[in-house]
Specification:
Blueprint: H1 5-21, E1 48-63, E2 74-89, E3 93-94, E4 97-115, E5 124-131, E6 134-144, E7 148-158, E8 177-187, E9 194-205, E10 218-230, E11 238-250, H2 259-262, E12 267-278, E13 285-297, E14 300-312
Antiparallel strand pairs: 1-2, 1-14, 2-4, 3-4, 4-5, 4-6, 6-7, 7-8, 8-9, 9-10, 10-11, 11-12, 12-13, 13-14
């Protein structure tokens, strides 16, 4: 659940170039990495300590305008984020549910290039490697029912990585982000083998250090419809497979920019699949997701992939 640092870095670096070419280009994507929570959106882990590592990868060579048309710019972006999440769920109940506390320490490597086709200038290039923003969940509460799991809580992203305005090697956003997350896992069968998962994150951002820019608020939704198949007679080995998707949209205007750029709002959707293998020892699971974006406006449109492994102690 960590930021798309490379997209924001790319946006900041390219903003002065793009606004002079076509004033319909958006600048940012939300800090939540879409597609990070495709299954179990409402499910808080069992009491105890658990750890997961997720490699989130996104790539694109298309930049869309306000009408969803591909801009005539030579652009590419390739980003991976390595998320290390530590989750603790105490054994006692609160308001009838399980409390969850989480910290996600992430590292990223963003690469991009862009050139203005209407000038002879050299392409803009940059890279960023290292610690990025850290995500803290100081309060999350989940409930388990016969046919549904529900959860809701508060999350904050802190700019713990290095950030210098205008630098091409910044790995932090340079601003704080607060968010409220909610999720639902609906079980369509008594065995809970068939499930619908929905996970929503609504985020509002602080002002970026050194620039005075405050990105608009945004909403992110991950979802899936999946089926679990037993791979052993005792059901301890299982495979979950299903269709998945996400959407991410800016809901309020940016501030601290020119009026034309402040009015721009981005949006993007994606569809694909997810697979997850569960094993009997220490709650181990290995999950992957592969999604293709469509309907992008004022942002990049490409492909997202995730690989996640987790253990419970």
């Amino acid at each position: 659940m960590t930021p798309i640092k490379g997209l924001l870095l790319l946006a900041v670096e390219l903003s002065s170039l793009l606004i002079h070419v076509l004033p319909t280009v958006g600048q940012v994507r939300g800090v939540y990495s879409p597609g990070s929570t495709l299954t179990g959106g409402g499910t808080v882990p069992d009491p105890g300590l658990s750890y997961s590592n997720q490699l989130w990868y996104g790539s694109s060579d298309e930049l869309k305008d306000s009408n969803g048309k591909t801009l005539p710019l030579q652009v590419s972006v390739s980003i991976w984020i390595d998320n290390n999440s530590l989750v603790y769920v105490p054994h006692f109940k609160f308001l009838g549910g399980n409390l969850e506390f989480m910290v996600d320490i992430a590292f990223s490597n963003g690469r991009y290039s862009a050139s203005n086709p209407f000038s002879m200038a050299s392409p803009a290039r940059g890279s960023a490697v290292g610690l990025t923003d850290t995500n803290f969940v100081p309060f999350d509460l989940g409930w388990h029912f016969k046919r549904a799991d529900l959860q809701t809580g508060y999350s904050v992203y802190a700019p713990t990585g290095p950030y210098v305005p205008g630098a091409t090697n910044s790995t932090s956003n340079g601003f704080w982000t607060n968010s409220w997350q909610t999720g639902t896992t609906l079980y369509l069968t008594k065995s809970k083998a068939t499930q619908i998962s929905v996970f929503n994150v609504y985020a509002w951002n602080g002002t970026q250090e050194g620039t005075g820019i405050r990105p608009g608020q945004n909403d992110s939704v991950d979802y899936s419809l999946s089926q679990t198949i037993s791979l052993s007679k005792d059901g301890k080995w299982s495979l979950l497979a299903g269709a998945a998707g996400y959407g991410q949209w800016q809901t309020t205007k940016n501030s601290g920019q020119t009026p034309a750029r402040e009015a721009l709002k981005y949006g993007v959707d994606a569809v694909g699949f997810t697979l997850s293998l569960s094993a009997p020892f220490m709650g181990f699971y290995l999950q992957t997701g592969d999604l293709w974006e469509y309907g992008a406006r004022n942002t990049f449109q490409g492909r997202t992939m995730t690989i996640t492994a987790g253990l419970q102690f």
